[in-house]
Design brief:
8-stranded mixed sheet, binds nicotinamide-adenine-dinucleotide, single chain, 52% helix
Length: 311
Amino acid sequence: MESKKIGIVGSGLIGRSWAMLFTSVGYHVAIYDVTIDQVTSSLAEVLKQLQELEASGMLRGTDDAQTQHNRLTGTATLKECVCDAMFVQECIPENLDLKIKLFAELDKLVGENTILSSSTSCIMPSKFTEPLVHRENCIVSHPVNPPYFVPLVEVVPAPWTSASTVSRTKELMTELGQEPVVFSKELPGFGLNRIQYVILNECYHLVQDGVLSARDVDKLMSCGLGPRYTWMGPLETAHLNADGLGSYIERYGPTIMDVSSTMKGNADWSLPAANDLVQQCNDMIPIDRLEARRVWRDERLTAFAALRTQM
Ligand code: NAD
């Protein structure tokens, strides 16, 4: 029988979220970080979050918070974390050198049946898996924050990832209750961040060119495109906005191309070039209020996740 053990490397925001998802459906999770203190405080944080979710009726799975937490073990070494695991989810910072070093270590510690999966948001898996003995078992499973309430996972293979690694990863993500999207090939930024960066570039230009304030640019999304995209994507939205996408293209294709030809594209995402934009965002939500605003965001995402289950 296949092992029910999952190894999680890196116990920050995303590592803790994966741990909660895996334990909710019965997996035993071993978690590792660079210091044991970090592991210990992460275990305590996960228990606190599971208990809060239980109290608000939003706990996933059929077991209570303590039972789910009992499936989580902190480990003092990487070896202990990944030994005999069926699936290892890497959750260390978004830094290529760190990922190269870690995957080389993991490659030496695991057997033939362990999938080595990365949470990276943008780095193509070929960049940190090419020389590995077990490179056909390497893949990206990119979650969206906060994964407990946002179901998408981008499943991105390297050119040498085996078909069985892809299908096993997709099945596992589905078993967790997430919504995997499988890529046929890798691209920098995968899909979600490529779309997100097109949006951010246009927002940047609208603010920096003085056309709209940062607050009003955000309103275009939160009061306009956002509600429209809540239940369906931009393609279905267009499909429904005419008599199918063919008719949409006949009606609006020339306009899309005309407007797009005036777009400035890639903005200068460096400082001090983006100082105006940064200042307006700091005025909108002062830095010392970010944490309170994150709590506000997560409460709304929780309420929305509950609503989704009723519809
Ligand atoms: P984080 O900074 O919260 O956590 C990273 C953890 O990794 C820290 O606890 C750190 O001590 C630990 N770590 C560093 N080097 C390590 C090593 N060699 N071995 C073990 N542990 C190590 O970062 P995060 O936000 O959880 O992001 C982790 C990954 O997930 C990144 O690749 C990021 O791009 C990706 N991701 C993040 C988000 C997000 O919104 N935060 C969303 C999707 C994907």
